[in-house]
Design brief:
Length: about 210
């Protein structure tokens, strides 16, 4: 796995973009190969995650910054393959955040959790097809989605139908008929409220005649 990661990383670092231009400048200043610079930066990051403070914020920063940059590039490009790759990443990223919320953040009491989470997110954004995002999505999220998607769609359709009925009725779900008839003059009204207001007119005429 490391050999595959190393070769894919080396290939991605040879592409022309803002990050590789920054690495090229560092390489020219220091005389150290860019891939060695990346490994040193990763080692420093992992060391800080083990002994440092505020690591959860740093992990979120690591898990957001580069994927967000690549996602914007994917949106602006005409290729659709990279769109799918980063959509899968964000589904996995949000699922992880939701899992932490559901566990009331108890996972942070696990020793070296921030370090393990950072490793996981880096694997999820690794520049090869079968990375962490691909594995989690295809092994866990996609089967669960296919199993329950029809039930969720049915519930959403029912909720949308109920909301539409409430808007059309204008009476927040009351069981009143669509039109109410005035027995005095035979006119029809769309709501009981309109009928009640109209009947006050007849009541006023009867008082005036008496």
């Amino acid at each position: 796995m490391f050999q595959k990661f190393h070769s894919e990383l080396k290939s991605s670092l040879s592409k022309e973009n803002a990050f590789t231009r920054f690495l090229a400048a560092c390489e020219a200043k220091s005389g150290v190969n860019r891939i060695v610079i990346v490994y040193i930066a990763l080692a420093v990051l992992f060391l800080y995650l083990i002994i440092g403070h505020g690591t959860d914020v740093l992990v979120l920063f690591v898990g957001f910054l580069y994927p967000a940059y690549q996602s914007i590039k994917a949106i602006e490009s005409h290729e659709k393959g990279d769109d799918t790759q980063w959509l899968v990443y964000w589904v996995v990223f949000v699922s992880l955040q939701l899992f932490e919320v559901c566990t009331l953040s108890l996972v942070y009491y696990i020793p070296l959790y921030s370090f393990l989470k950072c490793l996981f997110l880096l694997h999820c954004m690794a520049p090869f097809r079968e990375n962490g995002s691909w594995i989690v999505y295809n092994k866990i999220i996609r089967p669960a989605f296919l199993k329950h998607s029809s039930a969720v769609d049915s519930a959403l359709d029912s909720a949308a139908g109920m909301a539409k009925q409430v808007v059309n009725d204008g009476d927040y779900g009351s069981q009143c008929p669509e039109e109410a008839e005035c027995l005095e003059c035979g006119r029809f009204f769309r709501s009981p409220r309109g009928l009640a207001s109209h009947r006050r007119v007849h009541f006023g005429f009867r008082r005036y005649d008496s």
